[in-house]
Amino acid sequence: KPNVDDVISIYDTWRGFEVMCHVAPWLSKEKQRKHLGNDKVLLIYQEDPHTPVVPTFRGQVNSVAIVVRPALEGGWHVGTWKRARVKEFGPEIPLKYHVKDPAKLKE
Questions:
Q1: All residues at 6 or more sequence positions from 89 whose CB lies less than 8 Å from its CB, including other chains
Q2: How large is the average pLDDT for residues 56-73?
Q3: CA distances from 1 to 12, 13, 26, 36, 45 (A)
Q4: Which of 22, 40, 59, 75 is most enclosed, with most CB atoms within 10 A?
Q5: With contact defined as beta carbons under 8 Å apart, do 71 and 61 qualify?
């Protein structure tokens, strides 16, 4: 939905929280820096199932990254990363987390 900056994003609610996702390919490099650089949590969807992405945090705001990539055996692999200064939080995701049910991917 376009906002005052003419940025198209994806908006949803989850467990009573409002969630807005900025989609990097839809943004210019400048708007990526401005908007993604101010997001505390980065959700990275990787289309390539072969090479896992290890996120790099830039600036001071990005603190947590969740990477979702297709699994060769079907479903998705989910990995999480956090800055050292971020305290442990839940729910804990196993190191090699594999989700087969699309409905569970959102949870």
A1: 82
A2: 88
A3: 11, 14, 12, 16, 20
A4: 22
A5: no
What secondary structure letter does DSSP report for 28? -
Instruction: Number of helices (H) and strands (E) in the chain: give both, helices first.
Output: 2, 6
Taking only the tens place, the pLDDT of each residue in 7-22 is: 678 888 988 999 888 8
pLDDT at 31: 86
Give yes or no for a contact between 2 and 8, defined as CB atoms under 8 angstroms apart: yes
Burial 85-100 (b: 16+ CB within 10 A, else e): eeeeeeeeeeeeeebe
Q: Output the six-digit token pair for 13.
A: 């609610």
